């Protein structure tokens, strides 16, 4: 069983199954087909009564080979297990763990299938599977949409096979199921889909993902023709991914699928629906809707009483989001009452008609509305038939329609557009197009809402940002050209944006206008209808805006005194040939002006009216019109001027009337032409009548011809009947609906047909032999012209049934022809051959070898099933692909095997290795022989293969044992004698020669009794038992040496010769062993390093004293304080000297009759044999403490240590030696906790604390083995811009459901030597977290500070790991954080390791600066990049000026070392202000943020600017 949390395991696929009434039978059929060994598990939610006891696990366990278990909260998911939901609760899946939750109060069935499916979709994503089986209601319909949206697979039971079709029918109605099958077929189809996805070839060129653009355009064209939707602007990755998904679902190759889409409209529609991903829910991303609600309330406050709040929701899918925004709008516009019609109008549009049908229905399940706030659900929804229905008032405010946001015209005057998660599937140009249309549709100040994963691609005054976090934008004014939709995307005409101007320069358009105003007179530019379209210069002296409505005509702007003249000039320009007309008008006291009307050159028509003031002129000026306003002016002159103007105006009027007359005359001519056309139409109608009479005559002739053709068809039919009766096969002809249209008599061999069966579907006709899949064969033939052949066998006949298409003259399939042929003779002959072949196979299968036969081309024509046992390969697969046998040959032997097989005589015998699929290696002996052909059949090669692994192993074992025996005989430490049945020497090794001085050849034939003295214990030499007892052997020089002789019997079967080996004698010299034994006895009593008694001997002495009845015994347990620092600073050699010195001082401090021993490490003990009173023990303890406290001279320095002493007294404190030692140890820890350098007497209450320490050590060790730790991260921010520069990694212990801070267990880890293991775990966790942080934040990933102790930096394996570390983002993102104690040991490897890390790119940080013992010279050499000033200095700075000065000095010192300063422990705003005042660079503390898990710190950083 594979847990979902096992590292390195395959991804676990979670299959959620939901069922209700009738579901147990369907569940049984489903799980009966489940197989063990797949990386999948099942979570079952079966509707049950909450008060009943469920026996569903027991029922399912009977029908499935999987393990069946009841779901338990917190249970990790594992493969091969079926989890059954208990009654009365809901079950959810969360990150590979089951969560059992209380059922909600929405009144829906329990357990909720929707909740289960939704949780699986969210947690497992593309690995999720939802299966919905028989049941009533619609529970699960919303859940399958969640799984489908997550990219999972959805399957539903075929409603036709369900006992109750409500639930699977509701799922099918959503359009999301990928599979709709009977329960027994679902898992097989699902395995096909999953396996095809997991075994996707590495060669992506064969995948749909590698389609070229031209092929993809063809698919897009097909989709556009079938669905009416143009997907050319959709992202290529989205289209290819959905094509591949559909390809996997229907199990076709890429080429086959493309052909299928081109001809199958149903599949094209399915692909189109998949591309139109529908992701929607009520109040999805609730924070966004809170922000939208605030904006709409502001809009409602400014809304006029007569206006509606108009909202557009493109891509509304099934309507949840549209109703969400409708509720918020209704609440904003009608906060209290809804008696009158709602003043909102919501346009909900989408391309998926199935989704729109759900939206129009306006009913949703309990799971779907669970996210709707209670007050909105109460006001705008109501319960109907177990569902939630939108109230009629709100429903009537929605217009739900099919609309393409990219290509259809937009809705006008919109206040809010919710375009969430729609543009994410569009390419950039289509996104810009849609945004242009939204800007066109929105009213000024309108609001645009985008999804959290979307944003405005570029800023061009289209929209301004309202709320960047929630993607809210407001309509702006853009200089870009608006392109309204056409049927297909057309790239917009590129308009060059205005160039960027250097300071002091104006845009080109402004320069042109200024140039015109400078070089041209004030003018009006007019179109062909004399409407003003442009004003050049100041025309106010001649133009004015009057009161009332204006049309833009020039007559509405010209002052009264110039109107007649201007009208006349424009009329002359329009009806005459001159390019311009000029008039001069003078007014007494107002000067003169020259007015010019000129045609505009170029395309189109229009004119320009210019005004040029003239200087005062004499009365002799000609062609001047004077408008008299004030005397004195001559009356004749005035009359003359007025007459001249009137004549011009009259001429202009005459020309206008002439033009109108011409237009009326043209209209009259058109009316006359229309009258003539009507007369022609009447004549054509009369002609048509005559043509109809002629056509009637032609039809009569055609009828006669048809009668003749009918007679011919009768004759052809008779001929066809004769042909049918003459052939030996039966024929049945069916139409496209598989109805029988014709059959021959011989077809009754199979089909029981009579004439009354004509028109009856052929699959419904009884048959003499069952015909499997007849309907499927006929459908395939009619649909795809497939020719199918099927052989049928019964007890008395054999028939061959063939279906082929019935094609008409236009090559269209009109039905199918079923041919029934009797093949009894052929079948009998084939069965005889098959029986003979079966006998041959049975013989071949009975032998141990794998027997095979190959053609000369290498094709296998026969292979026994023994191949599965020998090679571990599937028999059918080997027959299909013989190269599998060669591929199984070990790579080192493959060339040798290929050479043998390629020999000229086609004969070989060879031994080689194979590698089985399970990785095991076996030896094969193969022999082959060529069999020449006999003329009718070609030659072939036969051969056999045998597994000889065991035989080779026995041979290798014998060789190895022989080699071992030779090695034993060559040894010189032990003498070996090989003896015959009379104990005479057959052979002797060099060890005997070295021991006795005799050569091996000299000893052959010598009785062993001559060499070895008789057994002093009386053992007989011929005894078969071991005689490993001391004896003496006589050497060549006559000296006897102590030895042991061990005699072993040699079992030799089948060899009764006298010189056969019967025994082996092993002779060992034990003189050296006796010396070593004596030395070991001394070592057992005394510690070699200090000369004190060992712990074991001290314990035994304690037991002797207690057993002797002495009642005044006390034990002083002495533990050195500071000894570890001596080792770290001066080295282990200095530590050994300190231990020896302490041992000498303890001897001096103890009394003559006391016993001093070493317990181990830096722990000692004094056994006091005469402790009459506590005063004497106090004196002894004080002497010991004083002696230890004295400085210890080393080679170049002095070492200082102290001690903590625990005292336990017998018999008050303990009755045994172990108890006395334990209690003294406990008292020692109490003395250490009280401040060290002191002693403490044991008290009974100390045991509780000792037990707690022991329990903590045990639990901490178990946690280390289980890796029950996680990392939290506290941010360090820049005091200038607030950026998160660094995070500090802090370890946390997950203990019994709570998170324990390091302060609660790190001391125990240090005391028990578990820091090394904990440090390695921390580094591994940090490495994994840095990878996740880099993937989530990218360039915004901060540096990570890792705390390292001197002990860790001194450990070679940890330092090697650090130096080989390649974290995500590089070592430049790592900060190695150490305390000042690292500087105390200049000879430590820690400084070298830190220096190497710094050179590799890591930053060195000094932690708790200001509280340790700093070596400034070493600190400068270390070159730290960061110095963290201890929090105590910051707190001290809050108390008085002295503390401020100290903090200031620490900061300046850190800056002097070119290091950035971090002030840690910032807990309030005052501390933060002090940090800023003292020019610290960075700050850290609870006031900024507490330590948080990985996911939270990523979100925290991502949300900050």
From TrEMBL:
Residues 836-901, 961-1015 form the PAS domain. This is Uncharacterized protein. Residues 673-692 are annotated as: Disordered. Keywords: Chemotaxis, Hydrolase. Residues 1111-1244 form the GGDEF domain. Residues 1253-1505 form the EAL domain. SUPFAM superfamilies: Chemotaxis receptor methyltransferase CheR, N-terminal domain, EAL domain-like, Methylesterase CheB, C-terminal domain, Nucleotide cyclase, PYP-like sensor domain (PAS domain), S-adenosyl-L-methionine-dependent methyltransferases. Residues 908-960, 1027-1082 form the PAC domain. InterPro entries: Biofilm_reg_signaling, CheB_C, CheR_C, CheR_MeTrfase, CheR_N, EAL_dom, EAL_sf, GGDEF_dom. Gene3D superfamilies: 3.30.70.270, EAL domain, Methylesterase CheB, C-terminal domain, PAS domain, Vaccinia Virus protein VP39. Residues 204-476 form the CheR-type methyltransferase domain. PROSITE patterns: CHEB, CHER, EAL, GGDEF, PAC, PAS. The active site is at residues 20, 47, 139. Signal peptide: none annotated. The keyword Membrane does not apply. Residues 13-197 form the CheB-type methylesterase domain. Residues 675-688 have a biased composition (Polar residues). NCBIfam families: GGDEF, sensory_box. It comes from the Bacteria.
């Amino acid at each position: 069983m594979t847990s979902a949390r096992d590292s390195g395991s395959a991804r676990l696929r979670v299959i959620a199954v939901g069922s209700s009434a009738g579901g147990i039978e369907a569940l049984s059929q489903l799980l009966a087909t489940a197989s063990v060994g797949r990386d999948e598990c099942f979570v079952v939610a079966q509707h049950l009564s909450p008060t009943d006891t469920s026996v569903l696990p027991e029922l399912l366990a009977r029908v499935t080979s999987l393990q069946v278990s009841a779901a338990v909260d917190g249970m990790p998911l594992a493969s091969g297990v079926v989890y059954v939901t208990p009654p009365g609760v809901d079950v959810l899946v969360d990150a590979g763990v089951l969560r059992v939750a209380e059922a909600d109060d929405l009144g829906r069935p329990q357990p909720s299938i929707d909740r289960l499916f939704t949780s699986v979709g969210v947690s497992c994503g593309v690995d999720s599977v939802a299966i919905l089986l028989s049941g009533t209601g619609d529970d699960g319909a919303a859940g399958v949409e969640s799984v489908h949206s997550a990219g999972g697979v959805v399957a539903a039971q075929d409603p036709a096979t369900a006992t109750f079709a409500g639930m699977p029918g509701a799922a099918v109605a959503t359009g999301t199921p990928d599979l709709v099958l009977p329960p027994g077929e679902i898992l097989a189809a699902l395995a096909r889909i999953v396996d095809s996805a997991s075994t996707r070839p590495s060669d992506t060129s064969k995948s749909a993902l590698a389609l070229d653009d031209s092929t993809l355009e063809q698919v897009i064209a097909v989709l556009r023709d079938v669905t009416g939707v143009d997907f050319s602007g959709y992202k290529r990755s989205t289209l290819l991914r959905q094509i591949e998904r559909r390809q996997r679902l229907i199990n076709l190759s890429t080429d086959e699928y493309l052909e299928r889409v081109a001809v199958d409209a149903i599949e094209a529609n399915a692909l189109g629906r998949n591309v139109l991903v529908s992701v929607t829910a009520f109040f999805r991303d609730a924070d966004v809707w809170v922000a939208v609600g605030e904006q709409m309330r502001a809009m409602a406050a400014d809304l006029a009483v007569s206006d509606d709040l108009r909202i557009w929701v493109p891509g509304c899918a099934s309507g949840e989001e549209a109703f969400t925004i409708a509720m918020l709008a209704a609440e904003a516009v009608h906060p209290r009452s809804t008696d009158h019609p709602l003043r909102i109008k919501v346009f909900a549009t989408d391309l998926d008609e199935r989704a729109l049908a759900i939206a129009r229905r306006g009913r949703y399940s309990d799971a779907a509305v669970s996210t709707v706030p209670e007050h909105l659900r109460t006001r705008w929804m109501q319960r109907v038939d177990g569902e939630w229905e939108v109230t009629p008032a709100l429903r009537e405010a929605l217009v739900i329609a099919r609309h393409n946001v990219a290509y259809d015209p937009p809705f006008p005057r919109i206040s809010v557009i919710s375009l969430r998660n729609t543009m994410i599937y569009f390419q950039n140009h289509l996104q810009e197009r849609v945004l242009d249309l939204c800007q066109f549709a929105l009213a000024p100040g309108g609001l645009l809402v985008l999804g959290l994963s979307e944003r405005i691609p570029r800023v061009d005054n289209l929209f301004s940002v309202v709320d960047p976090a929630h993607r809210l934008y407001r309509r702006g004014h853009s200089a870009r050209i608006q392109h309204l939709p056409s049927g297909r995307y057309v790239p917009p005409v590129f308009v060059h944006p205005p160039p960027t101007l250097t300071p002091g320069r104006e845009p080109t358009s402004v320069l042109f206008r200024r140039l015109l105003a400078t070089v041209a007179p004030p003018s009006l530019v007019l179109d062909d209808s004399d409407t003003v379209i442009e004003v050049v210069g100041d025309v106010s002296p001649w133009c004015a805006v009057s009161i009332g409505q204006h049309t833009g005509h020039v007559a509405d702007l010209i002052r009264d005194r110039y109107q007649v003249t201007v009208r006349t000039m424009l009329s002359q320009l329009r009806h005459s040939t001159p390019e311009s007309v000029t008039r001069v008008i003078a007014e007494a006291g107002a000067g003169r002006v020259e007015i010019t009307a000129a045609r505009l050159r170029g395309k189109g028509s229009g004119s320009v009216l210019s005004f040029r003031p003239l200087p005062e002129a004499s009365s002799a000026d000609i062609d001047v019109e004077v408008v008299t306003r004030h005397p004195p002016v001559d009356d004749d002159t005035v009359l003359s001027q007025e007459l001249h103007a009137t004549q011009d105006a009259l001429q202009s009027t005459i020309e206008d009337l002439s033009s109108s007359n011409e237009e009326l005359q043209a209209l009259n001519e058109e009316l006359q032409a229309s009258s003539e056309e009507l007369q022609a139409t009447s004549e054509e109608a009369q002609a048509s009548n005559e043509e109809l009479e002629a056509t009637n005559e032609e039809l009569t002739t055609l009828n006669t011809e048809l009668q003749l053709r009918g007679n011919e068809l009768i004759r052809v039919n008779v001929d066809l009947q004769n042909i049918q009766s003459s052939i030996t096969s039966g024929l049945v002809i069916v139409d496209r609906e598989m109805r029988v249209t014709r059959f021959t008599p011989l077809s009754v061999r199979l089909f029981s047909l009579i004439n009354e069966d004509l028109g009856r579907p052929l699959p419904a006709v009884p048959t003499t032999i069952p015909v499997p899949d007849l309907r499927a064969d006929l459908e395939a033939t009619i649909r795809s012209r497939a020719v199918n052949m099927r052989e049928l066998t019964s007890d008395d006949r054999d028939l061959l049934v063939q279906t082929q298409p019935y094609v008409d003259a236009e090559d269209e399939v009109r039905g199918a022809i079923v041919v029934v042929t009797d093949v009894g003779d052929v079948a009998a002959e084939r069965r005889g051959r098959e029986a003979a072949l079966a006998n041959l196979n049975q013989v071949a299968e009975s032998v141990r070898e794998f027997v095979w036969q190959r053609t000369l081309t290498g094709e296998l024509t026969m292979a026994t099933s023994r191949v599965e046992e020998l090679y571990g390969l599937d028999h059918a697969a080997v027959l299909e692909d013989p190269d599998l046998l060669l591929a199984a040959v070990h790579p080192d032997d493959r060339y040798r095997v290929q050479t043998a097989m390629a020999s000229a005589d086609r004969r070989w015998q060879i031994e080689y290795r194979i590698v089985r699929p399970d990785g095991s290696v076996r030896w094969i002996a193969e022999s082959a022989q060529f069999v020449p052909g006999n003329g009718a059949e070609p030659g072939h090669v036969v051969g056999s293969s045998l597994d000889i692994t065991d035989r080779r192993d026995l041979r290798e074992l014998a060789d190895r044992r022989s080699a071992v025996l030779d090695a034993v005989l060559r040894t010189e430490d032990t003498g070996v004698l090989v003896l015959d049945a009379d104990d005479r020497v057959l052979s002797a090794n060099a060890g005997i020669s070295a021991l006795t001085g005799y050569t091996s050849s000299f000893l052959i034939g010598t009785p062993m009794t001559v060499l070895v003295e008789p057994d002093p214990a009386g053992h007989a030499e011929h005894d078969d038992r071991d005689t490993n007892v001391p004896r003496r052997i006589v050497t060549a020089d006559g000296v006897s040496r102590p030895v042991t002789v061990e005699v072993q019997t040699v079992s030799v079967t089948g060899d009764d010769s006298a010189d056969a080996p019967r025994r082996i004698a092993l002779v060992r010299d034990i003189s050296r062993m006796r010396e070593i034994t004596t030395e070991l006895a001394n070592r057992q009593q005394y510690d070699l390093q200090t000369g004190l008694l060992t712990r074991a001997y001290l314990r035994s002495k304690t037991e002797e004293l207690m057993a002797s009845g002495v009642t005044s015994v006390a034990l002083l347990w002495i533990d050195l304080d500071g000894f570890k620092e001596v080792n770290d600073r001066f080295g282990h050699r200095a530590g050994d000297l300190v231990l020896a010195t302490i041992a000498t001082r303890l001897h001096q401090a103890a009394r003559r009759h006391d016993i001093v021993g070493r317990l181990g490490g830096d722990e000692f003990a004094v056994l006091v044999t005469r402790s009459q009173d506590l005063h004497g023990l106090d004196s002894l303890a004080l002497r010991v403490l004083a002696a230890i406290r004295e400085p210890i001279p080393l080679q170049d320095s002095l070492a200082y240590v102290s001690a903590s002493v625990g005292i336990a007294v017998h018999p008050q404190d303990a009755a045994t030696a172990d108890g006395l030692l334990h209690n003294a140890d406990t008292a020692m820890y109490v003395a250490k906790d009280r401040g060290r350098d002191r002693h403490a007497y044991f008290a009974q209450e100390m045991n509780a604390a000792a037990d707690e320490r022991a329990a903590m050590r045990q639990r901490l060790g178990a946690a280390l083995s289980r890796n029950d730790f996680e990392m939290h991260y506290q941010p360090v921010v820049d005091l200038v811009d607030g950026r998160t520069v660094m995070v500090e990694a802090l370890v946390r212990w997950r203990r019994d459901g709570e998170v324990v801070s390091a302060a609660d267990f790190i001391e125990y880890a240090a005391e028990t030597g578990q820091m090394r293991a904990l440090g390695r775990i921390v580094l591994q966790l940090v490495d994994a977290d840095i990878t996740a942080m880099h993937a989530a934040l990218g360039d915004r990933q901060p540096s990570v500070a890792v705390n390292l102790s001197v002990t860790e930096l001194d450990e070679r394996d940890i330092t090697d790991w650090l130096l080989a570390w390649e974290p995500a983002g590089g070592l430049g993102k790592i900060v190695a954080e150490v305390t000042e104690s690292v500087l105390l040991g200049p000879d430590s490897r820690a400084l070298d390791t830190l220096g190497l890390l710094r050179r590799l790119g890591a930053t060195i940080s000094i932690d708790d600066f200001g509280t340790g013992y700093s070596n400034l010279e070493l600190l400068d050499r270390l070159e730290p990049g960061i110095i963290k000033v201890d929090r105590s200095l910051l707190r001290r700075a809050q108390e008085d000026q002295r503390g401020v000065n100290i903090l200031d000095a620490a900061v300046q010192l850190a800056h002097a070392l070119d290091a950035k300063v971090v002030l840690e422990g910032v807990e309030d705003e005052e501390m933060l202000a002090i940090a800023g005042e003292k020019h610290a660079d960075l700050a850290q503390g609870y006031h900024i943020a507490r330590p948080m898990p990985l996911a939270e710190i990523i979100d925290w950083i991502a949300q900050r600017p």
